[in-house]
Automatic annotation (TrEMBL):
Pfam families noted in UniProt: NETI (PF14044)
InterPro entries given in the database record: NETI
Phylogenetic lineage: Bacteria, Bacillati, Bacillota, Bacilli, Bacillales
Protein name: NETI motif-containing protein
Domain of life from the UniProt record: Bacteria
Species of origin: Sporosarcina psychrophila
C-alpha cells in the first residue's frame, strides 16, 4: 500500500513532542512544519483554555519510496 506524501501528526495528550517526532520517523516521515492551536471548553457560557494542540506536518522521506 502506498503512503500519503504529506500527513499531519498530532502530539497526543500523554505524549511528549520527542515521542511524536520518533513516531513520525518510525513511520518514514520527516518534519516539514509545525502548528499550534488552542483547545477551549465552554463553562457557564465562558470559554476556558484547556491546552495547546501541537501538530507536525510530516513529509514522506525520499529513501522510503525507493
Amino acid at each position: 500500500m502506498s503512503k500519503k506524501k504529506t500527513i499531519w501528526f498530532d502530539v497526543e495528550t500523554e505524549e511528549t513532542i520527542e515521542d511524536c517526532l520518533k513516531r513520525m520517523a518510525a513511520e518514514g516521515y520527516a518534519v516539514a512544519g509545525r502548528k499550534e492551536e488552542p483547545l477551549f471548553t465552554e463553562v457557564n457560557g465562558e470559554f476556558i483554555p484547556v491546552r495547546q494542540v501541537i501538530k507536525f506536518k510530516g513529509v514522506l522521506r525520499e529513501d522510503e519510496n525507493a
